[in-house]
Please model this.
Amino acid sequence: MLRPLSLVVPLALGVILAGCTSEPVMQDGIRVNDPFESGNRRIHAFNKGFDQRVVAPVARRVSAGGNEAGEPGAMDLVINAGANLSLPGKVVNSLLQGRPEPAIRNFFRFAVNTTLGMGGLLDPAGTDFGLPEVDTDFGETLAVWGVPEGAYLELPVLGPSTQRDAAGKVVDLLIDPVYHLLHRDAAWAAFGLRAASKAGDRARFGDTVDSVLQDSADSYAQLRLIYLMHRRHELNQGGTEIDPYADAAADDVIDPYDP
Model:
């Protein structure tokens, strides 16, 4: 199903990871390498309008939370299922990074939630077995392998990224076991479910996202700063030691477009 995409991987990696000659600048103490700023700002304007007209309205419609008994609502079930489908790819990336412990954690989390959690709709792995998700992606794998961050990019619909992370998104799709093991229609359904889970995340953090996109004097610069700070913190590239198994809910910085 995804074999034709493999033909463009070397080209995509070469183009996206090509070095840039611009001089980085400092923004609020953060080094920013943004040689494509004019183009990035045009894409940001599109993304901002797309969020306002499409993503935010959809997110508001699915934002009904759990009931008074504390049971998960429809939004929670979609988010849980989407997150569960992302776990096999995270297992692969942890192994590629030479980190077997998070790979084992995510494998057992996937096994528990897929079986006991009704296909991932519920999260008994986290609530009953103490197995929180250990987040990772191929962008982090490239960082572990020593690939530099590259220039800042804003991608259509997907939002803020870097050259390294943009290349990682392409490879994540190709190495994800879910899409290789499922029939084409089922794979597309899984992709749609993961996309829907992002609308649920948008609903959860709606006020924060709106404050960045709609209330900032320069939403592009603000979003760029938030993304780079958050991503470097995730990858432990900002000088701060982090716990790789910490609960993501404890993070102080929310990435409105986190893929």
Q: What stands out?
A: The first strand starts at residue 25 and ends at 27. The first helix runs from residue 3 to 6. Residues 28-233 form one domain.
